[in-house]
Amino acid sequence: MTELGKYAATVLAAYGVSLALLAAIIVQSVIANARARRELREHENRG
Amino acid sequence: MSIWEYANPVKFMRTSGAALPFVVAGAALCTVVGLVWGFLTPLDYKQGSTVKIIFLHVPAALMAINIWLMMLVASLIWLIRRHHVSALAAKAAAPVGAVMTLIALMTGAIWGQPMWGTWWEWDPRLTSFLVLFLFYLGYMALWGAVEDADSAADLTGVLCLVGSVFAILSRYAVNFWNQGLHQGASLSLAPGERMSAVYRYPLYLTMLGFFLLFLALLLIRTRTEIRRRRLAALLARENRR
């Protein structure tokens, strides 16, 4: 395991916040895309 | 073959669908390996372990500026040639750019506290980055506020032109004013200022990873916008009958 020394909390906070934000935008993008695809497909199948 | 062929939504959907798995795989590989490699780098003699924040802060800041410039190019294509896919690509890029700007601001504040003794300073680069973030928020709000899609694309295109001043300022503010806490280029090639290869190579990899991550999200989100536009057109056609 890597040595973080006295700034461990600082480094972990930076990684935690960044990874959470990246995960949020990835998940939101994938969910929105799946929803748009489903809604369009359902509409086209109906018509 | 011309690049303008991709202004055709059908052609764009077909090509982006084929490219997406490779872009996603490249983004995941480069980002994960780059960040893990960066996290395992040795402590810096001056900054200790806080140097590891550079592998998030620099790629995010780089993308924050360049995503806005990509939006500028896409907006100009819309304003000049009226290609809908370019306007939708600009719209799709904005939330990703806002997240990258927020990561750059937050990691900068977290890094600045132990190194500069403050979370925030009204330094030219920090301030122009904050204004850039506000422009991202305003750009997204404007897309949401205008009902007619073409009018929204026109207005946000103009806003994008104005905001480009701050995107460029956030990159060159240090050189223009030569004051403040933030240092100049992180990847300087000047003798004696060049970053050690121990940090430079994982940084290059995370920069590539963040670029590919943006590209993957841009393709996914543009495809979403095209589908939403198609559904809205179908519903509008039905309502006219």
TrEMBL record, chain A:
InterPro entries (alphabetical): Haem_export_protD_CcmD
Q: Which UniProt keywords apply?
A: Cell inner membrane, Cell membrane, Cytochrome c-type biogenesis, Membrane, Transmembrane, Transmembrane helix, Transport
Q: One of this protein's GO BP terms?
A: cytochrome complex assembly
**GO CC, any one term:** plasma membrane
Record bears the keyword Transmembrane:
yes
Coarse class of the protein's main subcellular location: membrane
Compartments it resides in: Cell inner membrane
What is the topology of this protein in the membrane according to its UniProt annotation? Answer: Single-pass membrane protein
Tell whether Transport is among the UniProt keywords: yes
**Function of the protein:** Required for the export of heme to the periplasm for the biogenesis of c-type cytochromes.
Q: Which family does it belong to?
A: Belongs to the CcmD/CycX/HelD family.
Q: What is the name of the protein in this document? A: Heme exporter protein D
Instruction: Give the source lineage, highest ranks first.
Output: Bacteria, Pseudomonadati, Pseudomonadota, Alphaproteobacteria, Rhodobacterales
Automatic annotation (TrEMBL), chain B:
Q: Which domain of life is it from?
A: Bacteria
Q: Where is the Cytochrome c assembly protein domain?
A: 4-182
Is Transport there in the keyword field? Answer: yes
The regions listed as transmembrane in this protein's record are 20-40, 60-80, 92-114, 126-146, 153-174, 201-220
For this record, an example GO cellular component is: plasma membrane
Its membrane topology, per UniProt? Multi-pass membrane protein
Which Gene Ontology terms cover its molecular function?
A: heme binding; heme transmembrane transporter activity
Where is this protein found?
A: Cell inner membrane; Membrane
Q: Does the keyword field hold NADP? A: no
The protein's matches in InterPro entries, at most eight in alphabetical order, are given as: Cyt_c_assembly, Cyt_c_biogenesis_CcmC, Cyt_c_biogenesis_CcsA/CcmC
In the record, biological process GO terms are: cytochrome complex assembly
User: Any idea which UniProt keywords this protein has?
Assistant: Cell inner membrane, Cell membrane, Cytochrome c-type biogenesis, Membrane, Transmembrane, Transmembrane helix, Transport
Q: What is its main location?
A: membrane
**Annotated family:** Belongs to the CcmC/CycZ/HelC family.
What role does it play?
Required for the export of heme to the periplasm for the biogenesis of c-type cytochromes.
Protein name per the record: Heme exporter protein C
The organism's taxonomic lineage, starting at the top: Bacteria, Pseudomonadati, Pseudomonadota, Alphaproteobacteria, Rhodobacterales
